[in-house]
Amino acid sequence: MAIEIDTRLIPVLDTTLAEYDNVTVINGDVMDFDINDLINEHFEGMDVCVCANLPYYITTPIVMKLLESSARLKSITILIQKEVADRLCAKAGSAEYGAITASVAYYA
After folding, report:
1. Which of 26, 74, 81, 107 has its CA 20 to 30 A from that of 90?
2. 26 Cβ partners below 8 Å, 6+ apart?
3. pTM for the structure as a whole
4. Which residue segment(s) compose the domain that 5 sits in?
5. Number of folded domains in the chain?
């Protein structure tokens, strides 16, 4: 299952993924979905892995939504900008360390 907010990409994804009957593309904003409901409805009893390419401006809210969802996620693999990665992995006391760093360390 893929959630894509950009309506311009939906026709491209529909064409590119047409031969795969195991892929569903939803046009919407991931922030509007209840992660637990989505998993329970479509992936009951399955291991769930999240894989995403996240834009800079929405990375923190999406990461926090996933971590705070209490959903049974086997893994979260995301492609993010280096500056965000530096913040996620920052050492305590460094200039990059912040609330998101502490949250990721706590949940993951």
Report:
1. 74
2. 1, 2, 3, 4
3. 0.86
4. 1-33
5. 2
52 and 12 in a single domain? The answer is no
Q: Count Cβ atoms within 10 A of the Cβ of residue 63 and give its class: 0-12 exposed, 13-18 middle, 19 or more buried.
A: buried
pLDDT digits over 47-75, tens only? 999 999 999 999 999 999 999 998 889 99
Instruction: Look at residue 108 and tell me whether its pLDDT is greater than 90.
Output: no
Give the span between the Cα atoms of 105 and 103, in whole angstroms. Answer: 5
Give the C-alpha separation, 74 to 72, whole Å.
6
Whole-number pLDDT of residue 70: 81
